[in-house]
Fold:
Amino acid sequence: MASSRQLAGALALAALVGAAIPVGAEPVKCQKTIVQQMAKIKKQVLKRTEKCIDNQNLGKIPGPCPDAATQLKIQSTRDKAIAKIALNCPEPDRTTLGFPSNCAFESASSGVEATCAALPVTSPTELATCLACWKQAELFEFVAALYASHAVEVCGGGLDESSPVCSDLDCTTPLPDQRDLGDTGENDCQKAVGKAGVKHLLAVEKILEKCGLAGGTSASCLADLDVQAAIDKAVQKLGEGIHNKCGNRDPVPSVPFCCKFGMGNACVAASTRDECEMLGGTVQNNKTCAMDLTCDPLPGMQKITWWSSCPESATCPGTSVTTLDNLIDCVDTTADSITAELLCLQFPSGWPCPPSDGSPSGAFVE
Structure:
C-alpha cells in the first residue's frame, strides 16, 4: 500500500501535468518509468566508461574507451530502457507531461547534438530514443571533463559541437596531454577524481529526481532546505573522496617530465614523451633534465594531468584550476550544469532547460 507521502507526491505530479488527463493515460507512472530507466542508462554510461579508462591507464586493455565491450553493455541497457518506457508511456502521456513534439532540446548544426535534435518524436518509442540520445551525449561530456587526459578519446575525436559522442565542452584550451597515466600516483589520483565525480553526479541527480517525482519544480526543489542539505553532504563526500587519494596534488595540462637515458640517473633532452620513448629513454614525471644531464626532482607538489580552467563555463577561459580544491570545485559545478540539463529532459513541465550557450543558469546553489 502506498504511503501518504507517496500519494501526496502522485497527486502533486498529477496536478502539475493538468487536471484533464485523457482516458487510459497514466502520467505519474510514465514519469516515474522515465526517471527509473534513464537512471539505468546513466549508471551504465558513467560507471562502465570510468572502469574502461581506469583499466586503460593501467595497461589492462588497449583502448580507446569506451571500447566495444563497454559500448555493447551500454547499448543493451539503452534498448531495454527504451522498450520499458514505450510500454509504460502510452501516447497521451507524452503531451500530458509536457514533452515537445520534436527532439530539438538544443539547436545544433553538427555532431551528436544535431543527430539528437533531428530525431522524430511521434510515438512513445521515439520519445524514449530522443531522451536516451541527449542523456548519453551529456553523460559522455561529463566523463570527458573528469578524465581530462582522455577527453578527446571519450568524445570520439572532438570536444566542440562536432563531436559524434559528447555534448560540447565549452573551454578546452589549452588541451591537457592526451595519454595513459600508467600505474602511478597520478593515476591513483585520477581514478579517485573519476570515481568521486561519478558518485557525486549520481547522488545529486537522485536527490533532485526524488523531489521532482514528488511534484516539485526546479525552483521549489532548489529552494528546499532539506534538498540543499542533502546536496551539501554530497559535495562534502566529493571533496573527501578526491583528497583522500590526491593529497594536495596540483592540476596542470602538461606534467613536467625527464627522459632518463643510459646509466644511472642520466637523461637526454626530449620535447615530448613519445620522442623520449623513440630515443629509447624512460619517462620520469615531476622531474627535469638538469644542466648536468641528470634527472632531478622538481620542487613543490606532485601533479595531475588536468584542465587549467574549468571546461564547463559561460565564458572562456573558465574558472582557473590551479589547486586540488579548484579541481574539486570544477567537478562540482560541472556536475551541477550537466545535472540541470539531464533533469530538463525528464521533467519538461517543471524544469526548464538551461541556455545552450553554456551559461550556468541551471546550476544549483549550495
Q: What stands out?
A: The longest strand covers residues 257-260. Residues 24-251+304-350 form one domain.
